[in-house]
Each structure stands twice: as structure tokens, then as C-alpha cells.
């Protein structure tokens, strides 16, 4: 008689653990370089945990090797936070890239009923000129596009493109990349008399943009090329960029969860391009000034980035501020005086000064580095934690109070980590914004340093429930702040 299977009585299924996302490495630093590797078959990038490999791959006399030595000389450095250095050589034979200005919003093109339109701009640094567009045929999207791209426009090396439809269209104006660098600027504040109706404000075009000649790839394009294939959080370069290119790059990096470190040895940049970046609220760009030489200023940015990105957010009391820290391998800037310090202070540019010992000085006008770094790290870790809750559950997270509690528990774990590492701390909530029960909000901040809340699940709308969207989770986190200076008043009695 055949033996019957035990599965008739007992059935066991082994479930493999589902995969979630790895944590974001907030100590990974990318160096974009126009130095060419001296080894063959380098590839798109390489990761380094010490400077020796960089010397081998780029040669000991290269700027890339010099910056790598500054990065790994810091104590602590990116390795302390579990990071690494990734070096990304810029493409030496990149295609020409057009300058491109994108309209600020969507417009109804059927409203363009006037004739004799013009657009005023300068190309390649030439003087401003009125380019005649003339009558715009608004019958359809195609006829508008034909009207815009007339002979005068195309002969000037420009091209209009349109996204959307005739009633809701966004217009983009670009240079035609022919291999020559193109600079496009629209000046809406000119006092010169117009020869017709200015099209620019009617379709939301304003500002300026800079393209690139065929040849060495722009850093922005190199980031776009590599950001999905290798993880990095900080960005430095081995060359100083022009004001226009830097401004465009800073604007781009502000849209990313990354930090850009830029430096200059030119004092005029403090109240020039650096002030412009700070006035534009590009907080993801950290501006540094070191007067001694261009190379020394680049060394400053490399050392600063490595020292700054050294926080291990999973550690205990690892939070730090860059104020009054030392950069290994760099002497205090000998070109500083009180006037320069005041200028840097008022514009949020960090410097390396002699206070009897060399120390980094930061004013926080562009927000303090550690505040921006901590906020980005907190955001990224919350995103990954929440994603992994949903991605690793073997069944589902239900739209119930229990399900919401699962999501909120994941958020509380991240909040507790940031209290443990010293970025946040219990304290007094001074903001007028509270949610949930105000007493619960204030008590949790006082006792724990954070408060995580969601509305009762019964209040969720049918529309949101049908879309399987969780109720909004609200988090209040009390920053631990930092002491950067103090006033002491002494009364001495005889």
C-alpha cells in the first residue's frame, strides 16, 4: 500500500521576505571632474574608500587626486557616516546643449489676437535686439508654432516649442545647438522703445539660460546622466564654474534631494553670484570663500563637504554643526579682515578664519548647513521607511486605524532616531501651528521631542478611500538647535 502524503494533515508554506529599499546614503559624495583618467576602461564612475586608488586612476598631479586627499584627510569624514567618494569624469566629447527658457505657466494661446509681436533678447553676449515675430495665427497649436518659428527667429538660432494644447499651452524658447556655446537672455526691464507688442510676458517667458558647446560635458548634464545609476548626496567639482552655469546648476540642484558645495577665491563673488544664489533661496547650494588661490578654494569645498557629510544618522549624539570646525590640510585664510567677514556674514557665505586657531565661520543667512542637511536626511529616511512598510508586508496594510498606526509607528522610529543622534530634542513648542489635541501635541514635544498624528480614519473621504490613499500623517519635530555664540555680562564689585 502506498504511503499517503503528510500534506493531507499538515501543510507548511515558506514565504520569502519581500524586499524593501536600502537606506539613502547621506554621506556619499560625488566629485565631477574634467580630468581624464590615466587608466583605460575607467567606465562611467568608480567608488573610492581612500585616496590611493584615485592617485592611481588619475595621476598624482591631477586636481582630482588633490581633492580626494582633502576629502579623506578630514576627521571625521564621509567614511564616518558610512559614505564613499564616487568620481564621475565628465564626457569629453558631449553634444552641444541648447540654452532653454521654459515658460512659467500654461496660457490660452487663442488670446494672442494682436499683431506685430516681437521678442527682445541677446544671444551669445551680443547686444539686445528686437526679433520680429509678426502676426500669430491662433487657429491651432500647429499654426501658432509655425507663426512663432518664422525666418527671423530661426535665422537668429532660436526655436520655439509648445507643450499642452491651444487653450492650455506652455512655451519654451531654446537656442539651436550647432556646436557653439549659446547664451540666451530676455530683458523685460529695458528702457529702449519697443518696436511692437512684447510677446515674452504674454506667454510667461523671462530670465536667462546658458547652453554648452560641444566638448566637455556640463556638470548638470553629468548629474542627469548618472543620478539613476549611482547614489550620491553631496556634489563638488574640480573647476570653478562661470556665474551663469553655476546659477543654472544651483537652480537644478535645488529640485533634488542633494547638496552642492561651491567655492571661490574672488572676493567680488561674495556680493555677486553668491549673494544672487542666496537671494534666490537656493539653500541646497553651500557657498564658500577662500581668498588664497583658486585651487585652495576648491580644497576648502572638498574638505568642507567631507567634514559636513560625516554624520551617521543611525548613531547616538552624532549631530554636529560646521561652525568653528577645522578643515584638516587647510590653513586659515590670510586674506580675511573684518570687512570681508562682515560681507560674508551678511550674505551667508562660509569662510575659514584665524581666531588664534583656524576655524570655520558661518552666519546661517542661507540657513545653517546642518539644518539643511538634517532636514533632507529626515525627509529621505521618512520616505524610505514608509515605502518599506508597504513594500515588505506579505498581505496588505488595511485602511483602518490599525493600518494607520503601522505607518505612524514607522515614522516614530525615524523621529526617535533623530532624537537619539542629537538632531532633535525634547523642548518647548513655540510655533502657533499645532494639530490633533493641542495638549497631546505640546506634551509629546516636551517629553519626546516629536509628535506624530493622523485624523481618525472615519473622517476619510470616499474619494481618497477608493484611491487607497492613507490619511495625511502630520509630524512635529523639535530641532535641538546649536549654540554658535554667546554674550556674557559681568558685574564686578570692589
For the sheet with most strands, the description reads: 6 strands, mixed
Radius of gyration: 28 Å
Shape: globular
Proportion of residues in β-strands: 15-25%
Span between termini: 112 Å
What are the SSEs and their pairings?
Blueprint: E1 29-33, E2 46-48, H1 52-58, H2 63-73, E3 85-89, E4 100-102, E5 117-123, E6 129-134, H3 141-148, H4 151-155, E7 158-165, E8 168-175, E9 183-186, E10 197-198, E11 207-210, H5 219-226, E12 234-237, H6 243-253, E13 259-264, H7 273-279, E14 285-289, H8 294-308, H9 338-347, E15 351-354, E16 358-361, H10 369-392, H11 401-420, H12 438-447, E17 450-454, H13 462-466, E18 473-477
Parallel strand pairs: 1-3, 1-12, 5-10, 12-13, 13-14
Antiparallel strand pairs: 2-3, 4-8, 5-6, 5-9, 7-8, 9-11, 15-16, 17-18
Amino acid at each position: 500500500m502506498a504511503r499517503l502524503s503528510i500534506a493531507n494533515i499538515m501543510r507548511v508554506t515558506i514565504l520569502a521576505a519581500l524586499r524593501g529599499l536600502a537606506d539613502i546614503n547621506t554621506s556619499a559624495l560625488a566629485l565631477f571632474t574634467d580630468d581624464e583618467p590615466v587608466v583605460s576602461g575607467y567606465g562611467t564612475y568608480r567608488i573610492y574608500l581612500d585616496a590611493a586608488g584615485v592617485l592611481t586612476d588619475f595621476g598624482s598631479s591631477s586636481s582630482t587626486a588633490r581633492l580626494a586627499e582633502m576629502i579623506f584627510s578630514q576627521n571625521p569624514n564621509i567614511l564616518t557616516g558610512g559614505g564613499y567618494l564616487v568620481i564621475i569624469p565628465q564626457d569629453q566629447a558631449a553634444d552641444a546643449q541648447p540654452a532653454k527658457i521654459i515658460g512659467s505657466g500654461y496660457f490660452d494661446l487663442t488670446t494672442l489676437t494682436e499683431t506685430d509681436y516681437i521678442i527682445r533678447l541677446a544671444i551669445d553676449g551680443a547686444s539686445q535686439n528686437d526679433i520680429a515675430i509678426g502676426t500669430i495665427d491662433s487657429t491651432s497649436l500647429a499654426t501658432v508654432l509655425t507663426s512663432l518659428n518664422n525666418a527671423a527667429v530661426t535665422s537668429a538660432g532660436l526655436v520655439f516649442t509648445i507643450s499642452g494644447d491651444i487653450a492650455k499651452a506652455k512655451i519654451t524658447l531654446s537656442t539651436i545647438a550647432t556646436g557653439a556655446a549659446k547664451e540666451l537672455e530676455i530683458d523685460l526691464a529695458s528702457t529702449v522703445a519697443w518696436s511692437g507688442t512684447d510677446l515674452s510676458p504674454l506667454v510667461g517667458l523671462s530670465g536667462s539660460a546658458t547652453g554648452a558647446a560641444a566638448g566637455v560635458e556640463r556638470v548638470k548634464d553629468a548629474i542627469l546622466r548618472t543620478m539613476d545609476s549611482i547614489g550620491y548626496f553631496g556634489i563638488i567639482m574640480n573647476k570653478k564654474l562661470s556665474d551663469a552655469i553655476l546659477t543654472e546648476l544651483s537652480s537644478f540642484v535645488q529640485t533634488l534631494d542633494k547638496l552642492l558645495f561651491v567655492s571661490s577665491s574672488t572676493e567680488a563673488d561674495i556680493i555677486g553670484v553668491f549673494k544672487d544664489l542666496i537671494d534666490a533661496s537656493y539653500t541646497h547650494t553651500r557657498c564658500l570663500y577662500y581668498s588664497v588661490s583658486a585651487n585652495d578654494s576648491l580644497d576648502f569645498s572638498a574638505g568642507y563637504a567631507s567634514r559636513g557629510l560625516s554624520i551617521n544618522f543611525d548613531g547616538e549624539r552624532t549631530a554636529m554643526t560646521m561652525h568653528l570646525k577645522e578643515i584638516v590640510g587647510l590653513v586659515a585664510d590670510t586674506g580675511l579682515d573684518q570687512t570681508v567677514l562682515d560681507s560674508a556674514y551678511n550674505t551667508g557665505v562660509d569662510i575659514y578664519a584665524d581666531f588664534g586657531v583656524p576655524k570655520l565661520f558661518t552666519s546661517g543667512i542661507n540657513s545653517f548647513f546642518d539644518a539643511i542637511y538634517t532636514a533632507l536626511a529626515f525627509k529621505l529616511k521618512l520616505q524610505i521607511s514608509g515605502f518599506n512598510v508597504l513594500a515588505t508586508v506579505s498581505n496588505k496594510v488595511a485602511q483602518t486605524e490599525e493600518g494607520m498606526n503601522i505607518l505612524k509607528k514607522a515614522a516614530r522610529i525615524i523621529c526617535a532616531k533623530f532624537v537619539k543622534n542629537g538632531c532633535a530634542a525634547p523642548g518647548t513648542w513655540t510655533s502657533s501651528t499645532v494639530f490633533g489635541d493641542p495638549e497631546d501635541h505640546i506634551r509629546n514635544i516636551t517629553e519626546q521631542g516629536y509628535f506624530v498624528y493622523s485624523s481618525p480614519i472615519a473622517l476619510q473621504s470616499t474619494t481618497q478611500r477608493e484611491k487607497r490613499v492613507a490619511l495625511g500623517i502630520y509630524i512635529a519635530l523639535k530641532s535641538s538647535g546649536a549654540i554658535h555664540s554667546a554674550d556674557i555680562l559681568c558685574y564686578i564689585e570692589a
